[in-house]
């Protein structure tokens, strides 16, 4: 999940080399008829929202004739952070397990001893002074769960239309201090419980490269439905609309943009306010997957919108340990806002921005992302070191 550059470089210098399984079809076929590739790495990281982290991650590719880019992929992770986060998972990916259909699944356990809660709405917690360790704005959350997803291209492997169906289930436990904002507000979901979701979606994908696109884009419409029939304690539904677009300005310069709108309806537990749907889920508003520079999940509610714009520059290619690597840089601007019933959300133009820049170190589909971001509202500064492009 959070892999520093030196560990990526060390892994890339070994042979054979693989990268973690990618979430969407369309990867270049691996020129290997049969066999196994495997790799394991220690995790040592830092993130302004999660603190210092440590653990291990491993992956395995199994190849078979006629299966591209591989027949099966398995990945596992054990991760702990200094702010009380645990994130452990076991993931499977079978690109052509059932004919042309792709089966993906993940079993995971997540624990957060200081999960953020600032209340609902676009103007939540006006007295917050920037101390994310203040127990008033935290609670203890445990969330074991799993998901399964079946995807395919109904009009052929090269057609841009993709569709998927799936199911996800999670049991969330909640424990809040008596003086916390959560204990005082007592929103729906404070008693915890199960959230089973039926998932469905369609994508139109015209990107030239899934892991590092320079032209094209991908549009997605995703639905999720929870109710007693799906094994959920709460009755609600969600719609996610996402647009990602890439424009190649020159041989080294790419303009990338993402726009996301997520809407929840019904009896929504508070711990779902910050989540989006879709193939690649995000959370926010605030944090390294939505608006960088703002505290993680600083603003949340039933309706969330955020925009991310990056100018990506490929600086140079170089050799290290006999491997070809790419070094790049980005500057970016993010902004987002939320709407929630029953609370003041401010005027329509009151969005929360973050700006910054960073470095990218890549080999094939493997990319290390190192970002520095600043909130232009509060002046808060945050650092993110993670794996893969933001979008």
UniProtKB/TrEMBL annotation:
Taxonomic placement: Bacteria, Pseudomonadati, Myxococcota, Myxococcia, Myxococcales
InterPro entries xref list: Bac_surfAg_D15 (IPR000184)
Provenance organism: Pyxidicoccus parkwayensis
Domain of life: Bacteria
First and last residue of the signal peptide: none
Domain Bacterial surface antigen (D15): start-end pairs: 138-391
Keywords: Membrane
A Pfam family it matches: Omp85
Identification of the protein by name: BamA/TamA family outer membrane protein
Annotated localization: Membrane
């Amino acid at each position: 999940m959070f892999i520093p550059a030196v560990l990526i470089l060390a892994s890339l210098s070994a042979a054979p080399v693989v990268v973690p399984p990618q979430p969407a079809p369309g990867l270049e076929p691996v020129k290997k008829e049969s066999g196994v590739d495997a790799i394991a790495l220690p995790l040592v990281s830092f993130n302004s929202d999660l603190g210092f982290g440590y653990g291990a991650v491993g992956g395995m590719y199994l190849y078979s004739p006629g299966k591209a880019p591989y027949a099966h992929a398995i990945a596992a992770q054990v991760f702990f952070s200094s702010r009380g986060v645990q994130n452990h998972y076991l993931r499977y990916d079978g690109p052509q397990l059932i004919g042309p259909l792709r089966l993906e699944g993940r079993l995971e356990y997540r624990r957060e001893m200081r999960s953020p809660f600032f209340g609902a709405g676009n103007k939540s917690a006006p007295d917050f002074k920037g101390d994310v360790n203040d127990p008033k704005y935290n609670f203890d959350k445990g969330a074991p769960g799993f998901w399964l997803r079946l995807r395919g291209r109904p009009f052929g492997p090269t057609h841009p239309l993709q569709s998927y169906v799936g199911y996800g289930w999670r049991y969330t436990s909640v424990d809040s201090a008596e003086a916390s904002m959560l204990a005082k507000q007592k929103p729906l979901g404070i008693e915890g419980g199960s959230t089973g979701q039926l998932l469905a979606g369609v994508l139109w994908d015209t990107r030239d490269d899934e892991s590092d696109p320079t032209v094209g884009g991908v549009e997605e419409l995703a639905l999720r439905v929870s109710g007693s029939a799906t094994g959920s304690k709460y009755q609600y539904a969600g719609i996610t609309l996402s647009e990602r677009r890439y424009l190649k300005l020159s041989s080294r310069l790419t303009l990338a943009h993402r726009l996301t709108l997520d809407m929840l309806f019904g009896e929504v537990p508070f711990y779902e306010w910050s989540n989006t749907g879709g193939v690649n889920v995000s959370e926010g508003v605030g944090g390294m997957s939505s608006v960088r520079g703002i505290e993680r999940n600083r603003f949340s509610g039933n309706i969330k919108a955020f925009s991310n714009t990056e100018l990506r520059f490929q600086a140079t290619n170089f050799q290290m340990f006999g491997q070809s690597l790419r070094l790049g840089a980005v500057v970016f601007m993010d902004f987002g806002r939320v709407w929630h019933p029953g609370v003041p959300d401010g005027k329509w133009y009151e969005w929360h921005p973050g700006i910054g820049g960073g470095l990218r170190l890549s080999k094939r589909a493997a990319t290390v992302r190192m970002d520095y971001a600043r909130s232009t509202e509060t002046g808060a500064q945050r650092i993110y070191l993670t794996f893969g492009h933001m979008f």
